[in-house]
Amino acid sequence: MKHKLAIxxxxxxxxxxxxxxxxxxxxxxxxxxxxxxxxxxEEFGLExxxxxxxxxxxxxxxxxxxxxxxxxxxxxxxxxxxxxxxxAQIVSRGADDFSASFEWAYLSYELNEHWTVQAGKKxxxxxxxxxxxxxxxxxxxxxxxxxNYTWQIFNYTGVSALYNYLIGDWTLTGQVYFGxxxxxxxxxxxxxxxxxxxxxxxKDIGGVVVQLNYEWLDIRLxxxxxxxxxxxxxxxxxxxGETERDGKFYGLSVNIDWNNxxxxxxxxxxxxxxxxxxxxxxxxxxxxxxxxPFVSYSDFDDGSExxxxxxxxxxxxxxxxxxxxxxxxxxxxxxTGAGTDDSWRVAGDSKSISLGVDLxx
Length: 361
Known about the structure:
The protein is 5% helix and 59% strand. It is mostly beta strands.
């Protein structure tokens, strides 16, 4: 059922060239890396591992691999005139054995110069880089810091309204959205955390994004709430005797791009069953002609699962449409109960190196 909309939109885009102006663009990342040293998690039988991409379980080990971060994507858009358009995005990932899937499939209709409504499958706009998470060329790192970009659900199917206004010298943009996601099997929960098929349901999703931009300053605020159901091995999970739990997400990012200095920050909180899960990241970069060295720190803390990553890297824009990157990541996994059967460690400590090329076309 969840693929029918994507199939219908894909058929529409590819079968009506006489009725629409069709544009095709693409992006790719070819990245390799390995763990230089790491502890793993002995009680889970996990070898030294760097979990670089939580949602897709893109994990590096001590054997050099291109699979965790390598991907290829195509975006097809059709202008159907009179304000109506259709968009589909297909992505093939090394973390999914390079199987191709629809990440986006939606219709858009421009109501006026300020408002656009959309319906279909889209990326859940939780974080600053959510909408272009797969487009490595759009940011300095090899991938957005995993401690911050951790969630098991990253798409939703529903409706949204996008808006944009000019307020003096400021640009105001954002969106309001509603929908749900039913993911079975959920890759992160099934393959990494629970070890058996897990169905993750987020329903009654509702959120708002407000973004303000003034020349070198970009401020983004976001709020979302949802209701969660989960089934592990076909059995419904209960939390304190309840089969559902409500979550509320709050996020703030403040980014500065002033002369050659780049400062990227995000801070987020998820309130779930009267407990808080906090994440944040800070990145400092400095452009030197076509090069940008950077340092970054990210942190995840829910009181039990606690980990942080310190990263040092370099981006080299050697081509107008391509960038070479190299990055060193040092992960500290301080989950409580470490060394016991109730350990909340995710993948243990690790030191890793990765390098590759991001491009757009």
